[in-house]
Amino acid sequence: MAAAAQRARNQRLPPEVNRALFVRNLPFNISSEEMYDIFGKYGPIRQIRIGTTKETRGTAYVVYEDIYDAKNACDHLSGFNVANRYLIVLYFNPVRHSKKISTKEQEEQLRKMQDKYGVDGQQHTKGK
């Protein structure tokens, strides 16, 4: 491995970096083969999922085997022109992509967990 590549592998990555990338602004008719051609240049890919529904067209998830390959792809492919469209490449963030639940629903889930485990949610100090 080259010295520069070795240094890159030893660097500390920001917390948002992970192996899964979320890609937006893709041409609706892009094929899996084209996705592998574009993203495969940066390292081995575990999986590519291309959006096919009305809500997910033009998006895809690309999961790399190695986190450093994902970072390299994200760094180089954000703004990359594909069929006159500029790609938006982000690190997948499960919190951002999960459905938003209301505070009331969260409180209800918390109450159920407290009942299940027999806790009241209060801080208690140990007697001396």
Topology:
Layout: H1 3-10, E1 20-24, H2 32-39, E2 45-50, E3 60-64, H3 67-77, E4 81-82, E5 85-86, E6 88-91, H4 94-97, H5 103-117
Antiparallel strand pairs: 1-3, 1-6, 2-3, 4-5
Report what the structure shows:
- By secondary structure, the protein is α+β, with helices and mostly antiparallel strands.
- The chain contains five helices and six strands, in the order αβαββαβββαα.
- The strands form two sheets. The protein has a four-stranded antiparallel beta sheet with strand order 2-3-1-6, with helices on one face. A two-stranded antiparallel sheet has the order 4-5.
- Strand 4 (81-82) and strand 5 (85-86) form a beta hairpin.
- The longest helix is centred in the C-terminal third of the chain and has 15 residues, at 103-117.
Keywords summarizing the entry:
128 residues, alpha+beta, 4-stranded antiparallel beta sheet, 5 helices, 6 strands, 36% helix
Rounded to an integer in angstroms, the radius of gyration calculated over CA atoms is 21 Å
Biggest pleated-sheet summary: 4 strands, antiparallel
- Summed up, the helix count is 5
- State the shape: elongated
Strand order of the largest sheet: 2-3-1-6
Please provide the ordered H/E string of secondary-structure elements.
Answer: HEHEEHEEEHH
- Average predicted confidence as pLDDT: 84
How helical, in percent, are the residues?
Answer: 25-40%
For the record, give the distance between the C-alpha atoms at the N and C termini, rounded to a whole number. Answer: 59 Å
